[in-house]
């Protein structure tokens, strides 16, 4: 079998086993005298001998089947596969759907081969009969396989008429359509909606109304709802678009409007979709991308300015106004109706005393000594976002380490360039201290990023007393901002999350944003412990958070090479 590991038992039966394996190999190389049933059971046997994972084995088998179908299956490859499809369900569910998909997919490349066209036309009638047998539950195939058969064999109404009545005369075509209409109704009653729509669209069966379309949308079967609506005409397509608009599914609505050239009927959909896209990007902190998407339309740029004002991102407001001359728009806004900055937590509300920027070695040594005097610290890091596909993430630019009152922001890029050995030594003193509880949020992600950025340093390879707050508060959604809102009563303004962290100097707003992400972790932990103590469960709480503390000691110290 080549692609699979062949297991040959020891002892007197070895030759017999090898002979059986050679017969199987010969069976794949020449199918002219191999019945469909034998072929299917040989496939099963090959799969059973395979040592790869299931997906890999199916891919390898598909290649074998493609080759085998060129090697004289009688009376032809298409008829042969239909015969196989009657047998596959006997193998049970473990094999049935996968093998059926494999067999039908293997026929695609044969459709253009001239020598098998006669077999393809004859097999269409047999495939139609198979479809009818599946609909009548005589042959137990999954709905997806039935639909695939309709597509692969390009089954038409005349094929169904031939299978039902042995004739393709007009009266028999009408009787076949009526028969299929009854099948569609049964499918709709049993909620086999994908099959119902496949039959409706393929055989032009008029037997559903807008209630069926609405039901498909409510069941989130959007693709087949669109397919059915397209078959039924403009009125139903418009119904789907309106339903999408009602449920704020603007991307899907915009796609349908474009595909069916309905801009005159829905003139606002394109703008509403672009507006929603700009808002999503802004909410993720992707302001530069949002600006790129909005560039051609003044109205969208004004909306982006509004979003920046709403987020309290005033430097972005100023930047956009200067670039696109939007000062008059800003002047027209009523500030009280825009600003909601007070809804967010900030450093003043947490009584933070100082943010210390560390970008030289003396400051690094001093900051390390100060941090070593703390019992609990919060940690976070930032890097410039990179939205290009298939490119490496940007290097981590800063790491923030904070107590409840003071936040240190380390310029990793400069410190690494100036004195990597001292940087490594200082951060190891912090990371490997068993006396300091270090808090983070999804901290393994940050450590991975730090390791990728500064692989020569040992300080991110080992750590002690590390507590991931995301794991401690598993049930809380919304990221660190959501956790802050849950525990401290106010969320965090994340509008600067994806700003340029490599620019120097950082703006004061960037520094405050970075500091807050580290400081807030300490306050969340203290408030959680205070609540636990208040309700008399301090011991349980201690056990709870301690069970999430992790350490990783890498005893293999590597010599630094710079």
From TrEMBL:
GO terms for molecular function: 3'-5' exonuclease activity; nucleic acid binding. SMART domains: 35EXOc. Residues 355-533 form the 3'-5' exonuclease domain. InterPro entries: 3'-5'_exonuclease_dom, Exonuclease_MUT-7-like, RNaseH-like_sf, RNaseH_sf. Transmembrane segments: none annotated. Gene3D superfamilies: Ribonuclease H-like superfamily/Ribonuclease H. One of its GO terms (cellular component) is cytoplasm. It holds the Pfam family DNA_pol_A_exo1. GO terms for biological process: miRNA catabolic process; siRNA processing. This is 3'-5' exonuclease domain-containing protein. It comes from Sorghum bicolor.
